[in-house]
Amino acid sequence: MKTGKTNCLFILIAGCGLMLAGCNKESNPAATLPTQQVQQAQNSDVQDALADKNDQDIDNTLNQLQVGNYSISSLKSAEVSGTRTVTVDHPDSTTFPKVITIVYNNFQDSTANESFIKNGEIDITVSVTGDNKQMVTRAMTFKNFSITTDSTTVTVRGTRTVATTGITYKFTGITSLRTVITDNITASLSYAITQTGVSDSLKFTRIVDKTRKSYLHYTNTGGITWQTIRFKNVFAQDTITWSGSVTGVNENNLSYSKSVDASTPLTMIFYKGTPVMASGTLHLTITGASSTSFTITYKEDPSHLHMTLVTVTNDQTMKMHSFDRRFGSKFFRWW
């Protein structure tokens, strides 16, 4: 891949703090991965950061709609310029399936640390399982949807589906409550990246099949009777885990696969409001003239509690590269 294009991809999400970069903690230089192999992992990480930024923005909009019984007037807009038009064919809390259409026209997301201007349409079909309005499935279709920043345009095509497959509640008397929400996330997406004045472009694809579990904790701040209970979320105790797989073709036109076993899921906690990947193991394989595979492990850094200690190990040579990484506060999902 050309150096200029690599820089462009890094600029695209640099402000969100999701690149594989940081201080090398290896004391033995002979055991350190070659720069080229570190860049392979970095490029793959850039793809996922871009995809997750896009997913989170859409999910935030849908969450607002769901809380407001799909009433358009309840939507909060963070726009700086342009327009975002949202329509719902059944703006109520009882009629399903319903179709939500989001049309962006030079819409700038002011919550990003840099300018993300969106254009195009996303159609979402929302359905529920039986009469349980909490078991929601959102199927999203991207139509001529693009994000532009720093003279670079990323066009997204394909579908993404998020299906809630389970919700459980555990009460500790009336003092506290833990809710576990299980989501299955599947997607078949393609991303085309172009620059102004550049004739060729980069492309990458993502085929996703992941399980996400959200462990949400609440404490009773109200009375001592069931009629006066007021549960409030205790954000610092919340945990999110992921397992499953992501496969596709990266911007170097090489096939790649990522997998996280359910026995060692990626586990994110929150330290003073900052998301920290506390544990987990990810396996990355990149296939070209010869395959290269990596094992990437995450754990809390006891010296920097707001950061994650990441170690990338080449499975063939066993050489490694370790560094601290801080996850951008806007990203509550990754990979």
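[next item in queue]
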Amino acid sequence: MLSSSQNAVQPNVDRLLSRCFSVLLLLVLAICFFPAPSSAQENVTLDDAVRQLAERVAAIPNLRGPVRLQFLQDPDFAADTGKDWEDSFRKEIEKRRVTISGDSSANLLRVGLAETPTQLVLSAGLRVSDKEEVRLVTFPRSAFHAANTPVSPVRIEKQLVYRSVERILDAASLGSASGGGLLLLTYRNADLSLLRLDANSELKEVIPLTAPGPYLSRDPHAELLVHLADVSIFLPGRICQLNASAPADIKCRAAKFSWRSPTVATPACDVGGWRLEAEGTDWTTTDLLQVVPEDTARKGSAALLSDFPGPILGINGGEGPASALVVTRNLRTGNHEVYRITLACGN
């Protein structure tokens, strides 16, 4: 079994610097991904942080030509901060001889302001010489305002459980009635197969789906649902069903349905639940898993992030209420990978 564990809160910011540039995700880049601030940061203000960020952007190697600014921020948080910090950043970056342009051909510089339960995070990113450059500044949230809503300490634990050269469309946990393990739906040359993994994530069985009906379009989308030993495969305009103990007996029918709702994980220390989301609209860039409180009253008060080596293609519930399965495509290797995500209690 291949595995690696990560927390959403880690001191090593450098590891994240070459990733995570989906436009809508940058505004929450690195939420709960940083250590507690040092005493030297206690007196940092938002204006100070804006100046520091401008300095770090201007110092990016090989940064030439004009840049086009895009500011990203949660609307609820924007009501607290206003837009003055955006004007300040424009002035500070121009002071450092970086030209700002409204031309659509200019290099896009994305600047985001986000909040965590303990910190504010300013982030800036752009592509220079075919490389994504990211600069971050964090400072205590108490320097701006106190948290609105108390949030239980929760962290993300991530484990790589399977990788394959085959395209993985979705993953689901098999219950004890089926002996446990995982079920993966794969796609190659217009053919679908189910891979059955044991409790150690070792390949146990390959089940070709050869019955009339289980086919996909050029841009496939499919989802798995497992209940006890019964397996349902949702395809565009069609549902196929089988039993894990008799996989050859597959039946497909035309059907209308709604695709899966966002997965919610519920750690023991927070019964309100956390919703797992990803942008997932650009399959050519890396992605972030966003884990946000499900309770409407707590939205915007906290979030957790975990970065992935490529776009997130699917999120499904795991074997327990606090776990989930995430399917991604590693842009560096081209492999498809399945991760087990667990929301654990404690910082």
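[queue empty]
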